[in-house]
Design brief:
224 residues; alpha+beta; Jelly Rolls; Arc Repressor Mutant, subunit A; 4-stranded antiparallel β-sheet
């Protein structure tokens, strides 16, 4: 078990290193490795526990009836997934999780945590951390709603990049999505996305190279 990686996970924030192993063991952890594009959790299957991405990167995706994929969120090491569905006791996952590169994930049983089965102050700390994580994800979902509610692709892009810059507290930043992932996140065609990015660069709004972006000047996102 890689406890150094787990120590960086927000779920275990505030738990002393000498008590981390006991806190993790109470969740009955199970680890697995995944190759790029391999499914970690399949949409429609029962949740397999509270997930923690230990290494690599992954995407939370939603597929419609025709198989069109929309990226809901990107996952980095330390991020949780499926925790809300486990806590809610849903029978089927409404989204899936796919590895964006070779990754390792851990699954834990949240029942012990929710029932008070994690001993001592660690149990209370884990519950506090879980509540903060769920609240944070609610805020991120509101941000996503603000992005995809824009009627034009440019409006979606500018809103998304604005949030990324605010999170980074800088005009230059990296996004966690490649071009296809960004297109899926914005519910847009990839070629249309590339064309719009090129227009915005020619107009001096942004500069970019692969996943690195820079906001070149102030802009206003017109009401749509």
């Amino acid at each position: 078990m890689n406890y150094e990686a787990l120590a960086q996970c927000p779920l275990f924030a505030g738990i002393a290193a000498d008590r981390l192993e006991r806190a993790v063991a109470a969740l009955s952890p199970r680890q697995a490795e995944y190759e790029r594009e391999q499914t970690i959790l399949l949409q429609g299957e029962a949740p397999r526990g509270l997930g923690i991405l230990l290494s690599g990167s992954a995407l939370i995706v939603k597929e419609d009836y025709w198989g069109t994929r929309t990226v809901v969120a990107a996952l980095a090491p330390g991020d949780l997934f499926a925790e809300a569905f486990c806590c809610a006791g849903v029978a089927e996952m409404p989204v899936g999780v796919v590895a964006a590169e070779k990754s390792r994930a851990l699954f834990g049983d949240p029942a012990a945590l929710l029932s008070g089965g994690v001993p001592g102050c660690e149990g209370r700390q884990l519950l506090d951390n879980l509540m903060r994580i769920l609240a944070r994800k609610n805020l991120l979902l509101l941000q996503r709603l603000a992005v995809i509610s824009r009627r034009t692709l440019r409006g979606k892009l500018l809103t998304y990049l604005s949030y990324c810059a605010q999170d980074a507290e800088a005009r230059s930043f990296r996004i966690p999505l490649d071009r296809q992932g960004l297109a899926d996140y914005l519910a847009a065609d990839r070629s249309a996305l590339s064309a719009e990015l090129s227009k915005m660069r020619k107009e001096g709004l942004i500069a970019f190279r692969k996943n690195s972006f820079e906001l070149k000047k102030r802009f206003e996102i017109a009401a749509e």
